Amino acid sequence: MTLAHARPGERLIVEKIGGERAFRRRLMELGFVPGTPVELVGVAPFGDPIELLMRGCNLSIRRGEALWIAVRRAAGSAGGCDEVPMPAAAAMPCRSCDRR
Q1: Is the link from the previous residue into 87 a cis peptide, with omega within 30 of 0?
Q2: How far apart are CA 96 and CA 82, in angstroms?
Q3: pTM of the predicted model as reported, rounded to 2 decimal places
């Protein structure tokens, strides 16, 4: 699933950053590295941008940018396979059902 498809209050773990090299680098400089916990705090009234809590800091990113960040639920979060694929160029298989 991607960060753009998370719900407010969900705790997630960053798995992969997709997109072009410069874009990936910028997100990694902000702290989006694989294994980092992140929580979706809130969503703006029209759905964009989204507010995140990561490493003790609040930051906001566009939903379009969040589409390129593959995440998984942190231990203890609600389960089930409601995985939503990333854009085709960066798709990863779902760990629960092998769907792309």
Answers
A1: no
A2: 9
A3: 0.71
Tens of pLDDT, residues 41-90: 999 988 889 999 998 889 999 999 999 999 999 886 554 444 545 555 44
Domains of the chain and any CATH numbers: 3-76+83-90 (2.30.30.90)
Asked if 81 and 65 count as a contact pair (C-beta separation under 8 A), the reply is no
Give the mean model confidence (pLDDT) for residues 25-52. 90
Contacts of residue 20, Cβ cutoff 8 Å, sequence gap at least 6: none
From the number of C-beta atoms within 10 Å of its C-beta (0-12, 13-18, 19+), residue 48 rates as middle
